[in-house]
Design goal:
Elements: H1 7-15, H2 19-31, H3 38-49, H4 55-63, H5 72-84, H6 88-100, H7 107-119, H8 123-135, H9 142-154, H10 158-166, H11 173-185, H12 189-199, H13 207-220, H14 223-236, H15 242-254, H16 258-267, H17 273-285, H18 289-302, H19 308-319, H20 324-338, H21 344-356, H22 360-369, H23 375-387, H24 391-404, H25 409-421, H26 425-437, E1 446-451, E2 454-459, H27 468-484, H28 504-509, H29 512-522, E3 530-534, H30 540-553, E4 557-560, E5 565-569, E6 572-573
Parallel strand pairs: 3-4
Antiparallel strand pairs: 1-2, 1-3, 4-5, 5-6
Helix pairs in contact: 1-2, 2-3, 3-4, 3-5, 5-6, 5-7, 6-7, 7-8, 7-9, 9-10, 9-11, 10-11, 11-12, 11-13, 12-13, 13-14, 13-15, 15-16, 15-17, 16-17, 17-18, 17-19, 18-19, 19-20, 19-21, 20-21, 21-22, 21-23, 22-23, 23-24, 23-25, 24-25, 25-26, 27-29, 27-30, 29-30
């Protein structure tokens, strides 16, 4: 029927994917009596689907019921458009309708549907799609297989992603990137770096590869590989752009190199909101609250509008620097100036901020006014109470945490430390017994330090290292020197770690952070910084001791714990003890 008015095809071509002109052409189709033409409506819907979401996709979907006997081409176009437009449920629904209509599915169908399922992290529909793909004998298709690697990675099933990846006879750059991203997104950063090293022998990486690799290096604190990746990418001509630039900023910040992070940031022509946020967060992690606030104000003046994540970054920076006034002003500006409604993560930052400076009553009141607290808020409150020795409030908060998450050993340890701090050893024993009764154990702490390209890992009291005896002797000497300088062990927290009170000071002296720092000093040249990574929050005694050690050996010592960086130099820490 479309042949009766060939000019309509020309109008469709001229309209392209612009929704307004397409609606005008649709009106002309109806006026010409061609409203049941499958070819015209298919062309119209496909062009609309290719337009910007959500309007184009919604309009294309509204046309589908009016298309007589829609074919696979139209369904494929709509599945792809719905997936790209954030309508994953609609895309998967279209796939099911396509199957019910017994229309033939191609690798294009599965690639588009798998991407939609990945966007929604829908594991069950994803597995059903994959089973159908295998049943039709299309599992060897490179595009579809890469989409399923990405799907399984985003659903947290890394083993399934790896099986699909290993079964691919020919792996494209997209497939390699999907596998690296699957590992990185699921906290398996070392495996991500290992896959990248395989990739460079098979395919030329691209900017997407670089983003995942740098993120993995940031997770690991692998500064050497991260620096190499940035230099290698520049030499290969694949560096640049907001995404890879932002990844480099984050990597350098997470590896303790704030100056290099800022250099990368300043070289970017147009940093996007993610990159601005990464740099603000970097300052916050390193105790640079004032610099974070200054950069936030610069962003507000000349950069993109800050988003919800940006406000978390700057409020957290204020909390860790004791900048209560600035933090309160920024919190009030969220909805008023930027249209960003505060969420629980912003409330947690404010509670943390008030608690750190000892305004515990205000912190509790703030939390009450904003709907009560979840686990994160109560953890911040309990930690602040411990810091300011408010056993009554802290024990109440920690007890509530245990009620919220009875299987989380960290809450029991926090409550135990509060009681130990107050010298109430009977309650400490009761908390230990409660943990034992549930079969819970404190997460094992460890610290790592790199020497001559090799990462050395230490546990508390570690004797497994080949140079363990030498390290202990060196550390004992350091501890003696800092005692002469005025260091006094903080024994309260260690009461949860040992059974006998007289063993506490000995246990503190062999904490993994101290062993790693000692080995780092022994294994590096005079004046070189020592970089240590800790998997948990650094304890108060180690924080105090390393401040003294930095002065005693005249070294910069950088410790990255699970929350932030501590840059020790000349007897002080970059966190200004707001940690």
């Amino acid at each position: 029927m479309g042949s009766r008015n060939p000019s309509i095809y020309l109008w469709l071509v001229e309209a392209g994917s612009r929704l307004g002109p397409l609606k005008q052409v649709h009106g002309r189709i109806l006026a010409a009596g061609l409203g049941s033409s499958r070819s015209l409506l298919t062309k119209l819907a496909a062009l609309a689907a290719a337009g910007p979401p959500p309007g184009g996709v919604a309009y294309a979907l509204s046309l589908l019921p009016h298309v007589p006997s829609p074919d696979s081409f139209l369904f494929n176009s709509l599945i792809r458009a719905a997936g790209h437009g954030g309508a994953a449920a609609a895309a998967l629904g279209l796939y099911r309708r396509m199957r019910c209509a017994r229309l033939p599915c191609s690798s294009f169908t599965f690639t588009a549907a798998a991407k939609a399922a990945a966007a929604a992290a829908s594991r069950r529909p994803g597995r059903q799609l994959h089973a159908h793909l295998v049943l039709l004998g299309l599992s060897a298709d490179a595009h579809a297989a890469a989409a399923f690697v990405s799907l399984y990675g985003k659903c947290g099933d890394v083993a399934a992603a790896r099986r699909v990846f290993d079964g691919m006879p020919d792996r494209s750059v997209v497939a390699w990137n999907a596998m690296i991203a699957a590992y990185e997104q699921n906290g398996l950063a070392a495996e991500a770096v290992a896959v990248f090293r395989e990739m460079v022998n098979a395919r030329r990486p691209d900017a997407a590869t670089l983003v995942s690799l740098l993120s993995a290096c940031g997770q690991l604190g692998d500064l050497a590989t991260g620096r190499w990746a940035v230099g290698w990418a520049a030499a290969e001509g694949i560096a640049g752009g907001a995404a890879s630039g932002g990844a480099a900023v984050t990597m350098f910040a997470r590896c303790g190199c704030l100056a290099e992070a800022r250099e990368v940031f300043d070289r970017l022509r147009r940093p996007n909101v993610v990159t601005w946020t990464a740099m603000i967060s970097g300052y916050g992690m390193h105790g640079g609250g004032a610099a974070a606030v200054e950069l936030f104000r610069e962003m507000a003046a000349r950069g993109p509008p800050p988003n919800s994540v940006t406000f978390v970054a700057v409020l957290s920076a204020c909390a860790h620097a004791g900048l209560v006034k600035q933090g309160e002003e920024i919190f009030l500006s969220m909805a008023r100036d930027y249209g960003v409604e505060p969420r629980m993560e912003h409330v947690v930052c404010m509670v943390d901020m008030l608690g750190r400076v000892g305004k515990l009553g205000e912190a509790f009141e703030f939390l009450r006014r904003h709907g009560g607290g979840g686990v994160a808020a109560m953890t911040a409150l309990a930690g602040a109470c411990k810091r300011h020795r408010r056993l009554d409030l802290g024990a109440a908060a920690a007890t509530e945490l245990i009620a919220m998450e009875p299987e989380n050993p960290a809450h029991y340890v926090l409550l135990s430390n509060l009681y130990a701090q107050a010298g109430r050893m009977g309650e400490v024993a009761a908390v230990r017994a409660a943990m034992a009764g549930r079969g819970l154990k404190k997460t094992t702490g460890y610290s790592s330090v790199e020497a001559s390209g090799v990462t050395h890992v230490f546990l508390m009291g570690d004797r497994a290292h080949p140079r363990a005896a030498e390290i202990r002797r060196f550390l004992e000497g350091l501890m003696g020197r800092i005692r002469d300088m005025g260091y006094v062990p903080e024994t309260a927290e260690a009461m949860h770690e040992v059974e006998e009170e007289e063993a506490v000071e000995s246990a503190l002296g062999l904490h993994s952070e101290k062993l790693a720092v000692a080995f780092g000093i022994m294994s590096s040249g005079e004046g070189e910084p020592v970089r240590v990574t800790k998997n948990l929050r650094m304890c108060g005694d180690c924080h105090s001791a390393i401040k003294f050690i930095s002065a005693a050996v005249r070294r910069e010592i950088i410790v990255r714990d699970v929350h932030r960086f501590h840059r020790f130099q000349d007897g002080s820490c970059s966190c200004s003890d707001f940690w």
